Amino acid sequence: ESDTASEISFQLNRHKKTPSIGSHSSDMASVSSVSGSVLSVYSGDFGSVDAQGTVEFALDYDEKNREFQVHVSQCKDLAVVDEKKGRSDPYVKTYLLPDKARMGKRKTSVKKRTVNPIYNEVLRYKIEKMVLLIQKLNLSVWHNDPLGRNSFLGEIEIDLASWDWSNRKLNWYPLKPRSLSAVNGVDHRGVMSLSIKYVPPGSLGKWPKNPPSGEVHIWVKDVKDLLQLRPSGVDSFVKCYVLPDTSKKSYQKTRVIKRDTNPVFNHTIVYDGFHTEDLKDACVELTVWDHEKLTNHFLGGIRLGLGTGLSYGISVDWMDSTQEEVAFWQEMMLAANEWVEGLLPLRSL
Predict the structure, then answer these.
(1) In CA terms, which of 71, 103, 211, 235 is 20 to 30 Å from 173?
(2) In degrees to the nearest 10, what's the CA dihedral of 297, 41, 20, 212?
(3) Which of 215, 219, 237, 269 is nearest to 25 (CA)?
């Protein structure tokens, strides 16, 4: 893996207008063409349906085998995701919090075409009881999308320190909307240090009429306190997209920094093709990933934009920037041709 410099173009989802935005990232290592899909940046869609229904499960701890067991029985009256076909394909996923890394993740099989799925499956964790008691169990229900855009159907969060371990019976629990701890990013994922700059069209002296459109420069400096997924640390890299992007053509990424929970990237990305009015409707999305041979694991991210929930008049769930992210973006808009520095917490998005 190395930093790359590439040229890309994609179409903004605008009414009647489809300006092309190109991008390149600067580095001394190499120059190559990069292509890939930007549609499934995340495995989850939290905004498509309202949480409803109930889930039946039981908790137990096997002292002999030092094993925490979650017996997932069934769900009832789940939300319908595909209204045209009147169907949902639900599965149940569990995490031990605050560690949302892959070691704490378990999930059931997918039950197709039902809002009343029956599982009768046991999700198991090899964990010491003392360690278990300082964690929370997050149990959530999801609709499985073949394209990877899974939809959130509801969740329940249990403080295992106060759990009645003599209760081994199956009980029903109402599914709730996304928890406040998830919304507010209480689970610490690290902090990204970066600078951004907007160069308005025609503002560069040596090119009186050029560039014909503006540029957004993103300087990814470093990240501190990433989740440690293995004893040796984490092999991390950063992806960057400018939303909306419906062409699925390409994305930008840094090189991989190995075995370091405080990676220094020092990588600059430039997106051109920006008109000043596009800054109100576009969103720069930076996400940090753990690199593995078979699959990459999402560690956290930020979204830089105005956080209005709208893009070119269309309601979108990714226009959800936090107050800090919005303030950072606004400062860039007001300080043309100047680098704006920021230190922003990564979140689960």
Answers:
(1) 103
(2) -60
(3) 269
CB 323 within 8 A of CB 302: no
Distance between CA 339 and CA 329 in Å, rounded?
12
Q: So where are the chain's domains? A: 48-182, 190-346
pLDDT tens sequence across 132-164:
887 889 899 999 887 767 888 999 888 888 888
Question: Using one digit for the tens of pLDDT, what is the confidence trace for 39-71?
Answer: 222 334 545 688 899 999 999 999 999 999 999
Cα→Cα distances 230→54, 170, 234, Å: 35, 34, 7
Q: What residues have CB less than 8 Å from 294, skipping those under 6 apart?
A: none
Three-state SS across the chain? Answer: CCCCCCCEEEECCCCCCCCEEEEEEECCCCCCCCCCCCCCCCCEECCCCCCCCEEEEEEEEECCCCEEEEEEEEEECCCCCECCCCECCEEEEEEEECCCCHHHCEECCCCCCCCCCEEEEEEEEECCHHHHCCCEEEEEEEECCCCCCEEEEEEEEEEHHHCCCCCCCCEEEECECCCHHHHCCCCCCCEEEEEEEEECCCCCCCCCCCCCCEEEEEEEEEEECCCCCECCECCEEEEEEEECCCCCCCCEECCCECCCCCCEEEEEEEEEEECHHHHHCCEEEEEEEECCCCCCEEEEEEEECCCCCEECCEECCCCCCCHHHHHHHHHHHHCCCCCEEEEEECECC
Same fold, 48-182 and 190-346: yes
Nearest alpha-carbon partner for 103 in 3, 14, 16, 228: 228
CATH code at 48-182: 2.60.40.150
Mean pLDDT of the chain: 78
CATH superfamily, domain 190-346, is C2 domain (2.60.40.150)
Rounded Cα distance, 234 and 262, in Å: 9
Distances (CA, A) of 256 to 27, 241, 264, 295: 14, 17, 10, 14
